[in-house]
Automatic annotation (TrEMBL):
Pfam families, per the entry: Ig-like_KY, Transglut_core
Protein name as it appears in the record: Transglutaminase-like domain-containing protein
UniProt-annotated stretches for the region Disordered: 62-157
GO cellular component: cytoplasm
Basic and acidic residues bias spans: 97-130
Transglutaminase-like domain segment(s): 377-444
Organism ancestry: Eukaryota, Metazoa, Spiralia, Gnathifera, Rotifera
Biased composition (Polar residues): 135-153
């Protein structure tokens, strides 16, 4: 089906899951806009603004799906002039990242099928998401032509396997590689890479296949054709994840096999139910972490006791002090500023806070300032970190407060490969109040490179045992003992949101963690009014959250949030935990850590989770695996508090659990899979629709 851009935005969600539709093409003027919303719909094969490109993509899609009487040789077609758009460039590193939505279905690559009477309350897209661009029909899907050897037949199992691999490869290439949408001039194919890739494919197949004498020759024949299809299509993307993606492609294809080959694979999910009703559990999660770094404030040099923190918090919360600072925007000199501060503050603590507020509200971070003398920064109202601390130091001198400037390093995220800590130079202040030293970062207090000018009071008199997670200086940490640079680099990155919302990381405590398991858990003590979600990235590639992360309350300890990670491949991952309160609209980054995955097997995906899942405090107990098999018996075990109605859609059939299957907020129902499984609920008796909670896809 071909739809226009404006119409498609409303039509595609309604028609996407019609079984008679195989492919949807969108023809529009605003390609970039329609790429974004169409990203979540698997059947959308491309977004086009040129008729020739659209026609060619449709033609090749039709040719690809025409039945062939015999096995044929694959031929790579020439790419069509489809439109590719790169993602919006990332802004410079900022003090915090924001996500203005509830984590929902928007990141998954397959659309969630839902009936007309079911509404999705969480379908809100992330700003800046790139689309998958144009159809791969022209660049990945092979056309077929007959050959003199076309009458040769592989054993039926191998032939089905080949078809599955080709289809799975096409899907994974579309999902994984075009997320970057950074298509450059293709390089010349490297013979060594091609050979290694073929070896990888053959070894992966042979590892899981029953050994038969006649299959080795057939495998090599198959891959002589198949490898060129895959390689010619993906080497253009220049992705470092090429080999890993192809490995995973083969494993995914195996999981789709409904024959004897499947029996030789490990179980695809962490918890599955067999056709006999017996539940099988995979190996437990094993975490290998570095030694925890001891961090403690030096109580001889600074105060972090309750009495002092209450004094500090009372000054920060004083509305009168904040309001009076807003009247000083036109002050002409630092001396005049010091005079106003002394007039309106009662003591050194209030003076230090009023100065922090004024700088945060009136000085703009400007990364290209060359003159950072205090007088220049005050006059121009802009500067870099050195200018901020110079101004704070000079004004403290006018106020009679002992102040120092500290040079060191900051860590807002982990260093990328090839980066060094010396590239993260930073500066901040310390002041002396009542013979105790305290740390202040006026630059980050002003929002750093976040140009919204939101005052971050966390960086005023920050506790040293919290400051050290993002700021490092040798010799002025106010810790006992001080930590080394390597220990600093090993710590997770804790942002101000972490402390503002009262989070507590329980496990793991380190910034770099290692695992060889397909499931990794991060446990965080979280107040009742706060929700979390997690992001997973490798370099600049962000994996869809709804496939590879799942954050929910612990079923027996409701004050603990468990963030589960299901890494798709071996590699070094960036894991970011975002948080917000019930009253806030935007999630803000709170914790950043790394996860190194090696020798992983049985990679899987989580079910598709909707906003209702988080809003209603639902908890998934089993199955964690998104993909289920037809006629497989699955036990759906969830905590769904206070629902008036629970319905489960099994393919085209709806069922309502019996009273003993849903009671006291606990759903426990065994189902024989006939199609995609949708768990839905309604909490308002007056509502005319029910909301999707989660979806399991049948393969």
């Amino acid at each position: 089906m071909i739809v226009s851009g404006g119409l498609g935005e409303k039509t595609v969600p309604a028609i996407h899951d019609m079984p008679q539709l195989d492919s949807i093409f969108i023809f529009c003027y605003k390609v970039a806009y329609h790429e974004q919303w169409s990203k979540g719909y698997l059947k959308v094969k491309g977004v086009f603004n040129k008729m020739d490109a659209l026609c060619q993509a449709v033609q090749q899609s039709v040719e690809h799906h025409e039945p062939s009487p015999a096995r044929t040789t694959t031929v790579i077609p020439k790419p069509s002039p489809v439109v590719h758009r790169s993602r919006t460039p990332e802004p410079p590193p900022s003090h915090s990242a924001h996500h203005d939505r509830v984590p929902s279905v928007d990141d998954h690559r397959r659309s969630a099928s839902h009936p007309p009477e079911i509404k999705d309350e969480g379908f809100v897209r992330r700003k800046g998401d790139g689309g998958h661009g144009s159809s791969l029909a022209s660049s990945v899907k092979p056309t077929t032509t007959g050959t003199p050897n076309s009458q040769e037949k592989l054993p039926s199992g191998l032939e089905r396997l080949e078809n599955n691999i080709i289809q799975t490869a096409e899907r994974r290439i579309r999902e994984s590689f075009l997320e970057n949408n950074d298509i450059s001039q293709p390089p010349s194919p490297n013979a060594a890479i091609i050979d290694r890739l073929q070896d990888t494919l053959v070894q992966t197949i042979e590892k899981h296949m029953p050994k038969k004498n006649n299959e080795s020759i057939e495998l090599n024949k198959m891959f002589a054709e198949l490898k060129q299809v895959i390689i010619d299509s993906v080497v253009q993307e220049q992705s470092a994840l090429l080999r890993d993606v192809i490995k995973q492609t083969v494993l995914d294809a195996f999981k789709q096999q409904q024959n004897s080959i499947l029996e030789h694979l490990p179980p695809p999910s962490t918890t599955t139910t067999s056709t006999t009703g017996v539940i099988h559990h995979s190996k437990p999660t094993i975490m290998a972490t570095n030694t925890e770094v001891k961090i403690a404030a030096d109580r001889k040099k600074t105060r972090i006791d309750t009495d002092f923190r209450q004094q500090r918090d009372a000054v920060v919360a004083n509305k009168r002090l904040r309001d009076v600072v807003q009247q000083w925007s036109s002050i002409k000199s630092m001396a005049d500023l010091a005079g106003e501060i002394k007039k309106n503050g009662k003591n050194n603590l209030e003076w230090a806070w009023l100065l922090f507020c004024w700088i945060g509200q009136n000085i703009q971070y400007q990364p290209y300032c060359n003159n950072n003398a205090a007088e220049t920064v005050f006059r121009t109202r802009q500067g870099v970190c050195r200018g901020f601390v110079s101004l704070y130091h000079e004004c403290c001198s006018l106020l009679g407060i002992e102040c120092s400037e500290i040079s060191g390093y900051s860590k807002q995220a982990f260093l990328k490969p090839g980066e060094e800590l010396k590239q993260s130079l930073h500066a901040w202040n310390s002041i002396i109040l009542d013979q105790h030293a305290y740390l202040i970062d006026p630059t980050w207090g002003a929002g750093g490179r976040d140009y919204d000018k939101k005052l971050e009071d966390f960086y005023f008199l920050t506790s040293p045992d919290e400051f050290i997670y993002t700021h490092y200086a040798n010799g002025y940490q106010l810790l006992d003992p001080e930590i080394s640079k390597d220990e600093f680099l090993s710590l997770p990155v804790m942002k101000s949101t972490y402390y503002r919302l009262g989070l507590m990381l329980l496990s793991p405590k380190q910034g770099l963690n290692e695992t060889n398991q397909n499931l990794f858990k991060i446990a965080i003590r979280t107040p009742a009014h706060v929700d979390l979600f997690a992001d997973l990235k490798v370099g600049d590639i962000e994996y869809p959250r709804s496939l590879h992360t799942l954050c929910q309350r612990d079923k027996s300890k409701p004050d603990i949030y468990n963030c589960y990670i299901a890494p798709p491949l071996n590699g070094l991952y960036e894991v970011t935990i975002f948080a917000k309160t019930k009253d806030e609209t935007m999630y803000v980054d709170a914790i950043n850590m790394r996860l190194r995955v090696s020798d992983i097997t049985d990679a899987f995906m989580f079910p598709i989770i909707y906003g209702t899942f988080t809003e209603q405090r639902c908890i998934l107990i089993e199955p964690f695996q998104r993909l289920v098999h037809k006629k497989q018996r699955v036990l759906i075990h969830m905590i769904i508090p206070n629902a008036n109605v629970i319905k489960i859609r099994n393919g085209d059939e709806y069922m309502v659990p019996y009273k003993d299957e849903y009671k006291n907020g606990v759903l426990k129902k065994e189902i024989e899979v006939q199609g995609d499984l949708q768990v839905c609920g309604r909490w308002d008796d007056k509502a005319d629709s029910i909301s999707i909670i989660c979806i399991f896809n049948m393969i």
